[in-house]
Amino acid sequence: MGDAILTPAWDTGTDMDASRIRRMLILICIICIGAWLLRTVTTHAVAKPSAGSAAIVASHAGDPVPTTVPTSSTRPARASEPLPLADAPVAQIFGGLKQRADAGDAHAACRLAVELIRCRDLPMMEAVAGVPSTNGEDSEAALARKGNLAAANFFAQRKLDVLEARQRCKHI
Fold it and tell me: What is the pTM of this model?
């Protein structure tokens, strides 16, 4: 009775269980190898260019690479104009970036998305920067008092980031 407690529930002491486990492991290995081979074959089949596509690529080798993706088949791709400065207030640059993004400028669309995400995440940034320690003391001050200057500097930088983000996101 005491030995039954120490043996696993799946082990009945027969070679049948060990054989069954071996077969299951082999089956799992075969499935994994098959999935890997299928993925490898599919990847290589897609990546191999045909003779016709190689000729097309060769004929366009000197063409400039577009820096934007057209949003419809009627809009040609064009080079992106310089973006506004990184610390520009979002309210001032929003209209221009939106207009350029609507015209198919991928760089402007990306910049607009990044700025809007930063403004949306401002409350979370404020929460992280202002996390009080367990005794209600400012995290930066508490860490500096304990001599952990690297962590105190981290919180100080987050506070500066929040102040800058508040300025950039004002009126959004």
Answer: 0.48
